[in-house]
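Quick question, first post here. What does this chain look like in 3D?
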Amino acid sequence: MEGDEDVRSAVLQLLLETSMYTGDCFLDRLTESIAEYFTLDRVYLCELSMEVDRCHLVAAHGRSRTANPEAFHMAGPFDVVIDRGNLVQEMSVQEHFPADIQLKALRAEAFIGTVLKAESDDPIGALFIIHHEPLPEAQLIATVISHLAPRIGAELERQQHE
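> Answer (accepted):
Ran it through. Tokens below.
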């Protein structure tokens, strides 16, 4: 199946581009690589804070890195990602979450997110992709980042233990 080959190719390429890094360097390089590989506006990697309603920005890359970590309140699509494990909104994300001021500020049209889990299977973070126009390949991107999520979650958990 061609889609499976595209996923394998993307996952392999992204793992190769980040294989020599750990810690913050890995997370920074990963967000950069995802943004460049898929030509995306913004990729945010967040860690859930002890306060359930907030997400702490750990790494970000894209056209505009001006994301205020305080703006990532766990509401709207961010909350859906944590609750359901993922969210793929190919277009019209602002219409589905009209009260979300962060999406408006970022001029979001498409949104993809996946939860990051600890070895205990508890959610510890999330990877969010926000783009200014529809993303017809949103499902492919979501599948790729879901394959990367265990590696990202393991690195995030390792950093927490340190």
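Helices lie at 2-18, 23-38, 76-84, 93-96, 101-105, 138-161.
Residues 138-161 form the longest helix (24 residues).
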